[in-house]
Amino acid sequence: MDPLLAIGFWAYVLTVAGIYAIFVLGLQIQVGDTGLLNFGHVASMAIGAYATGLMVVHWHLPFVVAAAIAVVIAAIAGALIGIPTLRLRGDYFAIVTIAAGEILRIVIQNQQDVTGGTLGLRKASGGWPEFNQSILDAIGLDIDRRIPLLVLTWISAVLVALLLVRLGRSPWRRALRAVRENEDAAAAAGKPVFKLKLQSLGLGAAIAGLSGVFFTLLQTSLYPENFEPIVTFIGFAILILGGIGSYFGVIVGSIVISFIISGVRFLDFPLAADKVAALRFVVI
Question: Alpha-carbon torsion 140, 143, 145, 150, what sign?
Answer without folding.
Answer: negative
